Amino acid sequence: MTTGPIQVHYGVFRCSLPGELTAAAQARDWAAATLTHRLGLAPDTAETAKLLVSETVTNAVLHTASGRPGGSVTVELHPGPASVRIEVHDAGGAATAPRPVPAAPDAVHGRGLALVAALASEWGPLVHGRVRGVYFTLPAHTPREHR
Questions:
Q1: Cα 44 from Cα 30, distance rounded (Å)
Q2: Model pTM?
Q3: Percentages helix, strand, coil for the chain, rounded to the nearest 5?
């Protein structure tokens, strides 16, 4: 269950969820709705964000302490004049830093960060004090600009 969007400070939106696989769907729906309805961004930006939020939240739940009992994952949206930075915060504890890995053609898993690297303007691991996770940046097109 989502705690809902909470405006952390002017222009930053946050959604914290339990560290369960269902968090990916909840986070992507929240991000898309916030990007289109609250920030007025183009639907294609929201669709890309949905995919990348889903992939990064799933990774947080599967590969960090966020997926342990009582764990949580947080998504933050940081809109700027030309782009939106999306951060997925996890509970840490991953064996390695986030990085794309080659996936076999018939593999079911292993393409999440490769998608992030291919579709985001910028991305990388996030380590600020106790905050761990991944960030990525997407162009902040509005429907009018994107016609």
A1: 15
A2: 0.86
A3: 35, 30, 35
Count Cβ atoms within 10 A of the Cβ of residue 51 and give its class: 0-12 exposed, 13-18 middle, 19 or more buried: middle
Residue type, 75: V
For residues 74 and 92, the answer to whether their CB atoms sit within 8 Å is no
* Cα distance between the two ends of the chain: 36
Three-state secondary structure of 38-72: HCCCCHHHHHHHHHHHHHHHHHHHHHCHHHCCCCE
Between CA 32 and CA 59 the distance in angstroms is 19
Tens digits of residue pLDDT in 66-94: 999 999 999 999 999 899 999 999 998 87
Q: Are 121 and 137 in contact, with CB atoms under 8 Å apart?
A: yes
